[in-house]
Amino acid sequence: MKGVTRRGMLGGIVTGAASLTILRPGHAAEEATKAGLKQYKNEDFYGADGKLDVAKAKQAYYELMEYHKFPVFPRLKTDDFWVLDFALGKFTEVGMGGIFYINDKRDDYLLHDIWLLPGQMIAEHYHVKTEDAAAKMEAWLVRHGVGYFYSEGEPTPGVDERIPPTHKESAKARTEKLVKPGEVVKLEVVEKRHWVKAGPEGAIITEVATYHDMGGLRFSHPQIKL
């Protein structure tokens, strides 16, 4: 779609905590294998040059779609479907796949699907106002798998143990909520930091939002690049 690139992405959060089944380290990968999803190592996604192998990353998401019986539409086989690792080189820990069906500046709305492998997170981020757009507001429908959504607020007990290693020092959003298929959550406070992590069967999430202006996107981790 014209004007829509992988630089136009990202998903979000809701405030408030929920009762959760907590996964011990490595548990997501173990459960994914039991469920029938292929277990990948981080090095499986990188070539000798250290760059993310886009084709291999996409194939892992196609496998996730097939596992959840999510149709692999022809458009998902084009460059409109993008993947990224946030330039951290830790794709199995921090990464995502996505497609923008629409990102309309004039009428101020966005429709976006997100794919996360088991245990994979979208890096913590927030959205600020720009000269061209208000700070982005978002809501998410979990369609398959489960998502652990994190927002700023009172830290959920034990949350530090569940923050991925890359974000231990930088993550500010530590209020945790488990969101199951068919449940919808929203960003309650504009410009608040948020992130999401998939459960043991990965996650497929639909996001609806106001227009996404890349110029208003900010990350907590200082080394992230898009």
Question: Would you kindly provide a brief summary of this structure?
Answer:
By secondary structure, the protein is mainly β. Helices cover 10% and strands 30% of the residues.
Q: H/E element string?
A: HHEEEEEEEEE
* CATH level-1 class: Mainly Beta
SS-based structural class? mainly beta
Please give the largest β-sheet.
Answer: 9 strands, antiparallel
Query: Do you know the CATH topology?
Result: Jelly Rolls
Based on CA atoms alone, the radius of gyration comes out at 16 Å
CATH architectural type: Sandwich
Poorly predicted runs of 5 or more residues: 1-30
| CATH homology-level superfamily | Jelly Rolls
What is the element layout, followed by pairings?
Elements: H1 27-35, H2 54-67, E1 82-84, E2 96-104, E3 109-116, E4 121-127, E5 138-151, E6 175-179, E7 184-186, E8 194-209, E9 217-219
Antiparallel strand pairs: 1-2, 2-3, 3-8, 4-8, 4-9, 5-6, 5-7, 5-8
